[in-house]
Amino acid sequence: MHPVSGRVFAQVMSFRGAEWLEREERDIEEAADTALDALDLTKGLGVADVGAGSGYMTVRMAKRVGDTGRVYATDIQPQMLTLLQQRLTEEAITNVTPVLGLVDDPKLPDGVLDLELLVDVYHELSEPQKMLRGLRNALKPGGRLVLLEYRKEDPSVPILEDHKMTVAQAKQEVEAEGFALSRVDERLPRQHVLIFTRRE
Predict the structure, then answer these.
(1) Do 75 and 58 meet the contact criterion of CB atoms below 8 Å apart?
(2) What percent of the chain has pLDDT over 70?
(3) What is this structure's pTM?
């Protein structure tokens, strides 16, 4: 249970559920490219896909930041990183660095990232405060932390309640660790795009 908000942490999705990450309906339900449009990713940026899984968002981010950019794809399950590496090889993508993280440490280099993206991941973190501190350290001054989370405010969103978050919950928890909620984008069908900036 989160000590600030009282929220119960959701269970981490196992690598055995990786096929669900690649389901055909996902692009309709989550509109990945629309989500990335909201983030204004440009060539040359250093970014992270935190909880990258099999690389669904990683490869899209890699194409947007281009050869002069770098994507750090971090996950706590080595089996997920194996699937990710297979995908990178198949698609000949060379600007991604896979990273095996820990439940309390994303294992990202300090001060190098312009943006970190967590897609349907933050609510599963079992050590969110420690993870947020590590994520904050990896950002450049003014860098952005972006959470995509299913809208808990909307009972029609067909996702288990502990896999959803309200804007208020996210703001309360994340701002306690040195971030400020700068924008909430609601262009996606089912998810909030919660854009935080690193406070100095």
Answers:
(1) no
(2) 92
(3) 0.92
